[in-house]
Amino acid sequence: MTAQHLPILQVIVPLLAAPLCLLSSNRQIAWLISLIAGWTAFVIAALLLSQALDGEIVSYELGGWLADWGIEYRVDIVNAFVLLIVSGIGSVVLLYARRSVWQEIYHDRIPLFYAIFMLCLGGLLGVAITGDAFNLFVFMEISSLASYALIAFSQERRALTSAYQYLIMGTIGATFILIGIGLLYMMTGTLNMQDIARRLPLISGNHTVVTAFAFLTVGISIKLALVPLHLWLPNAYAYAPSVVTAFIAATSTKIAFYVLLRFMYTLFGASFAFQNMPLSIIFLALALAAMFAGSVAAIFQDNVKRLLAYSSVAQIGYMILGISFASATGLTAAILHLFNHALMKGALFLALGCVYYRFGSVNMEQMRGLGRSMPWTMAAFVIGGLSLIGVPLTVGFISKWYLVVAALELGWWPIAAAILLASLLAVVYIWRIVEAAYFQAPADSSNAVPREAPLSMLLPTWALIIANLYFGIDSSLTTTAAAQAAQCLLAMCMLPP
Amino acid sequence: MSQLVGHYNYWIVIFLMMAGFYIVIAHGNLVKKIVGLNIFQASVFLLFISMGNVEGGTAPIIMEGVTRYSNPLPHVLILTAIVVGVATTALALALVVRINEAYRTVEEDEIHEQDTSF
Questions:
Q1: Does B19 touch chain A (CB under 8 A)?
Q2: In A130-282, which ranges are E strands?
Q3: What is the pLDDT of residues A79-124, one digit of tens each?
Q4: Is A353 in contact with A397 (CB distance < 8 Å)?
């Protein structure tokens, strides 16, 4: 009975937890409610993934209305995989949140914080699970509005201007997506993704469809922070509270990437996107620009959070590069990197949150000598950094490997060289932090005494680090799921045979 | 010519969209940017609503002797989109209030001066 309702529970549990957090008006209870809701969502996602791995496609009709009239939730391997990583990161971050939030957010606002956090989680999960184009827009706005508010919870005043900037750009992106969905509706007369996918090939040369494609690509690229539409990202990540940075960095751009995959492959179909439209070459150019511009900008940052934010811009480039190959291996690499990047950036930002918890700042200056005063935190940071670079035995290696293989498969060896070169740039910026932490004397002597972060923050950080190592060594689950997801997207497995 | 006149709803949409977009980009006042954003969103609302119109159709209410109705679905969608737009505006204005408290100004260049890199 419950098993049949899993798809709706995935979204409803966090959404219902939000008002409960607000009503509890007690910070401990609010934290507990959101923790339980987050972990419930994670368990549901794991159940859905295990169903999807067996090749089962779960379709859920909201309120019993048939898919053509009502909203349909549809879980295949692609979104089951995305649901797992989003809810997984959400539940780990919530474990970590109690101490960190207590330190960084005005105490009377804490129940409110958890309420909005739950809305954000529910929105992101909703985007991933829905099979209805307009429903996707609504959930996307729920999660985006919640994340603007989450960023503004920070006590730093620059967080306010960053949130404002993000709101303006995010709303323009969302409106573009809305225009695209409207134009698609105009041409196909339906909002159900499957029906759209079925009807679009009949009118593929139509100018309105091409216009819809353009609006959707640009709108999603804004949400995705693809160069040159990434301007909101560095400030938003740098000034948000630590917990929020870790959560948003690991999930929200991944969800936008999922939306891109869904629209390009399932709705328009790979042949339209890559043969009728010059998507491949545009994405290739933008991906290379993102990889290099992001990495070079990261090298010159003094705020370590901002440094990692620019590194995220570069990593989004890798994912887009995977799509631009327009091959099954490239798509597998992109989906793998979606999962792996969430793990590494989540871990790195959580480690930085530990530093912020102790010292109230994450500038380069502050990192000096931290290898001695916070050995566990910095060890986690180093492993996360190695993963970001793509050293073997970490998840970063797996996705880079697939990317290089995909490039070589097409004979694009200059691109393979570019991937390696961009990884070297990652070595440079990670090394700057490692050098400061381990080889420089602390700025003032009080930093030399051990001041490790509390266990309740270290354990979640290390949980993600261990996930980085585990999936780097035994990558069978992630690579199988990613390869199946790529097959599913290419074969348009949402369509009935 | 009939193309131009016959599609007048799209010309209005495009004009409003560009006007709103221009205000968002060109104005330094944070409140005016929000106004621009609202105009930009309103143009999309019009796009959806005019799309639902069926020539010779009436409002979609069942009546004796009427067989042609306008498509009500875009209208319903836009009701939702308007709610989203209102929420966005409310949040943006709340942010502007707090920016004003923190910086004592809502002009982008003056905020920029206070933070060296906005």
A1: no
A2: none
A3: 999 999 999 999 999 999 999 999 999 999 999 999 999 999 999 9
A4: no
How many domains does chain A divide into? Answer: 1
How many whole angstroms separate alpha carbon A340 and alpha carbon A346? Answer: 10
pLDDT in tens, A195-234: 899 898 888 778 999 999 999 999 999 999 998 899 999 9
Per-residue pLDDT of A39-92, as tens digits, reads 999 999 999 999 988 888 888 888 888 877 889 999 999 999 999 999 999 999
Residue pair B27/B86 in contact by the 8 Å Cβ criterion: no
Of A81-85, A265-269, A454-458, B64-68, the range with the lowest mean pLDDT is B64-68
In-domain check, residue A21: no
Backbone angles phi, psi at B53, to 5 degrees: -70, 130
Question: ipTM score here?
Answer: 0.94
Q: What is the dihedral of CA A21, A151, A124, A316, to 10 degrees?
A: -160
Distance from the Cα of A394 to chain B's closest Cα (Å) equals: 35
CB–CB contacts below 8 A, A to B: 73
Neighbours of A177 (CB within 10 A): 26
Ordered by start, the domain boundaries in chain B are: 2-114
CB–CB of B95 and A185 under 8 A? no
Contact B102 A167 (CB under 8 A): no
Instruction: Report if residue A476 sits inside a domain.
Output: yes
Among the partner-chain residues B87, B92, B102, the one whose CB lies closest to the CB of A157 is B102
A160 to chain B: which residues are within 8 Å by CB? 95, 98-99, 102
In a domain, A455, yes or no: yes
Those residues whose C-beta lies under 8 Å from the C-beta of residue A372, and which sit 6 or more positions away, are A442, A448, A450
Determine, for residues A168 and B24 on separate chains, whether the beta-carbon distance falls below 8 Å.
yes
A473 in reach of chain B (CB within 8 A): no
What CATH class does B2-114 carry? mainly alpha
pTM: 0.94
Hey, of A120, A155, A160, A165, which one would you mutate to test binding to chain B, going by the most B CBs within 10 A of its CB? A160
Chain A within 8 Å of B33 (Cβ-Cβ)?
A: yes
- Asked if residue A318 is part of any domain, the answer here is yes
* Residue A497, pLDDT score: 39
Cross-chain Cβ contact B80/A185 below 8 Å: no
